[in-house]
Amino acid sequence: MTSLTPKQMLDLQERAADALQAVRNIRIPVIAAVNGPAAGGGLSLALAADIRLASENASFVASFSKIGLSAGDLGASWLLPRLVGPAHAADIALTGRTIRADEALSMRLVNRVVGADELLGEAVALAEQITRNSPAGVRLSKRALQANLEVPSYQAALELENRGQTLLTRTEDMAEALAAFVEKRPARFTNR
Hints:
By secondary structure, the chain is mainly alpha-helical. Helix content is 55%, strand content 10%. It has helices at residues 6-25, 41-48, 76-84, 86-95, 101-106, 119-131, 135-147, 154-168, 172-183, and strands at 31-34, 37-39, 51-55, 59-61, 99-100, 112-114.
């Protein structure tokens, strides 16, 4: 990195940032299954996911602060405090210490910790559980959760949610979900 010109380095940073932004912008939920170290950019990639699962072998480290760079890289300085709170975020970012899976769970950095041999199966099961829901409802839920991290007020969040709910009441999937509920059967969603 030190051999790059500032413009080359900025281009590299922007391409990497665009890639992580693309992960956050995917219309479907993203599940990170971490089974080893998530360091530096790997930490930022895990943070960009909607849900994070970890094996007992997982670890998380803001390693850039140990090599003369900032832990504020690829969105980490924005995402980390929102996930774990400002005190834990400062601890992770400023010390560069390794956070093991159990500690990551206790500070809400990950949603759950499972055995290494169970990790991918758990991630797939979670994805399957999500896919049993209305695709449009899931998509708008993800959008609302992300967008409302940035709105300035509760009122703004309500306005966004109200528009989403109104749109969803006009879908065939909503009518199917209500019929399935009344008939006590699983809904058959068509994404319409």
